Amino acid sequence: MRRVFGSVRARAALGATVVVAVALVAAGLAVLQVLRADLVDQARLKARTDAREVASRIAAGTGYRALELDEDVPVQVVDEDGRVRAVSEDLEAVTGTGSASVTPVGPGSGPGPDGGGDADADGEGEGDGDDDDDAGQVSSEEEYGHGSARIDGETGDYVWAAVEVTDRRGTEVTVYAGAPLATERDAVSTARDAMLIGLPLLLVVVAAVTWLVTRRALRPVEGIRREMAAITASTDLSRRVPEPGTHDEVARLARTTNETLAALEASVARQRAFVADASHELRSPVASLRTQLEVGAAHPELLDVDGAVEDVVRLQRLAADLLLLARLDAGERPHGGSPVALDALVREELAQRTGDRVPVRTEVAPVAVRGSRGQLSRVLGNLVDNAQRHARGGVRVAVREEGRWAVLQVADDGEGVPEGERERIFERFVRLDDARSRDDGGAGLGLAIARDVVVRHGGTLTVSAAPEGGALFEMRLPSG
Prior knowledge:
Elements: H1 2-5, H2 8-59, E1 75-79, E2 84-87, E3 91-95, E4 137-151, E5 154-166, E6 172-180, H3 182-234, H4 249-298, H5 305-329, E7 339-341, H6 342-352, E8 360-364, E9 368-370, H7 373-390, E10 395-402, E11 405-412, H8 438-441, H9 446-456, E12 460-465, E13 471-478
Parallel strand pairs: 8-10
Antiparallel strand pairs: 1-2, 1-6, 3-4, 4-5, 5-6, 7-9, 10-11, 11-13, 12-13
Helix pairs in contact: 2-3, 4-5, 5-9, 6-7, 7-9
């Protein structure tokens, strides 16, 4: 059971069914309420019409015994004293009206023997031909109530309309006319039964349609899952998940997944190449140092101490470069707290350099950036070292501010960098001059480290042709 309802299809079908069920039940109750209220209003309208019709006849002077109340409409006329003056034919019992009696009072206070007037206790009567000025009055308001009536042996529920009327003799009576509620109850019962039958069927249809639609929509997701499981099992990052031809969220998920796989494949490839290149670069100084130590162990007088120290220094520098690249690859960012004066950094770094092959000329203006002073000093040192290796007669270092950018330029008068190779030189372990020895040319990590550091400071590092004819490296960082 947990596995069934643990699927998205099952939860979607169940959720849609519950929502539709709640909505249909609420709508059904509202419809039944409106239908019941409408039918009750219609019953009230009929009862009011019948009551006013009888009241109008009484006000016009028709005697109580001459009302000729039809048995189809239950009517009861009650005076102020609660005496029944007239009832409809075959009315056997009544509730909810002015009196529970269905027997009119005797002739002494009822309609006259001529059928056209009433006789009071003194025997006086009032005919139907009196002047209109003596006509009674029908109240403009009515009241409603619920009760029952038994007519010709059949009992039913009724809504009663009560209308007060004053006859020609000034007697106030109340006319009660009823309308049956059987029609309302039958209609509501029929509608309720139809809803009780149709609601489960509709919910089954909603659940089935939701299940099928969700299954069709999630079919590509299952394909993505299977392919990802296969990639995980095979560790083959060159594989890609299938991309559906739609333009929905699933298609975007597949494209994003493939982009992630491509980035992961490239990252793993770079890591493998990095490890291979690092192992290759370490092999040379380690082998040289081992050879020197073995010779020194066998023939101490032949030990080249200076060469051994130089190999150790190379190993130390290479290890430091590899460690810094590893930290940068792990996402390390500079702790940019205090600003760094870029002009002062250039002066201090160049003042510490001794034994440069060619002189370094500076053109610096005051400008500050935020970032790691040590890492920015490393960038400057790498750029100057690279320029020193390729310059013929001099190196120029310039610092200035352009808008919101701080610009550092390092230029040389060497052979420059071919335009097609200007991005490749920032790759790791890349040396364009293959004729150089590793001792002279370095390991090919300086420019790669410089660009990574600059990018993590929010800037850019590019190379172009220098006015002096060589290479111009330009670093741009946000000033501040």
